[in-house]
From TrEMBL:
Signal peptide: none annotated. It holds the Pfam family TRAPP. It comes from Blattamonas nauphoetae. Gene3D superfamilies: Trafficking protein particle complex subunit 3 (3.30.1380.20). This is Transport protein particle (TRAPP) component. InterPro entries: NO_sig/Golgi_transp_ligand-bd (IPR024096), TRAPP_component (IPR007194), TRAPPC6/Trs33 (IPR037992). Belongs to the TRAPP small subunits family. BET3 subfamily. PANTHER family: GEO08327P1, TRAFFICKING PROTEIN PARTICLE COMPLEX SUBUNIT 6B.
Length: 143
């Protein structure tokens, strides 16, 4: 899917917007189904509750991994770090381009944003890779 949008979009920015939008809808639907199957027992509607939901309920199922929540410098901001992110793990085994890697991260950012939207909040999510492609960080700013 990512390669299709990358090759058919007129500009890289247009591809990133389209992929993020699809990720957003996927995140909304995924969270809706997750809540239908396992309603949250005690959800706090604040930064701590959202970060806890993402780490314990959303991340292990959506991204098949463990995430660490890093405290943000502001009340409405925090960072999720995954040192073995499954969707970009293969990039470390092969040659990769930063632009393709960023497209995969955009879909993930959209999914996270869609999940937060289902919790009743708006968010800005940016993703980046640190020392290797499989070591990813997602900065989440809730508004």
């Amino acid at each position: 899917m990512v390669n299709l949008f990358a090759s058919t979009s007129e500009t890289p920015e247009q591809a990133m917007e389209s992929i993020e939008r699809i990720g957003f809808r996927s995140g909304e639907k995924f969270t809706e189904k997750l809540f239908f199957d396992q309603p949250p027992t005690s959800f706090q509607a604040n930064r701590v509750g959202i970060s806890s939901f993402l780490r314990h309920s959303f991340w292990p199922i959506a991204f098949k991994g463990n995430a660490t929540i890093l405290a943000g410098s502001y009340e409405n901001m925090f960072t999720i770090e995954d040192t073995d992110f499954i969707w970009t793990r293969s990039f470390s085994l092969t040659g990769y381009s930063k632009s393709n890697l960023q497209l995969y991260l955009q879909y993930s950012c959209g999914m996270i944003r869609g999940a937060i939207k289902q919790l009743g909040y708006r968010a800005k999510v940016t993703g980046s890779c640190q020392s290797s492609p499989k070591h990813c960080q997602f900065v989440i700013e809730i508004s």
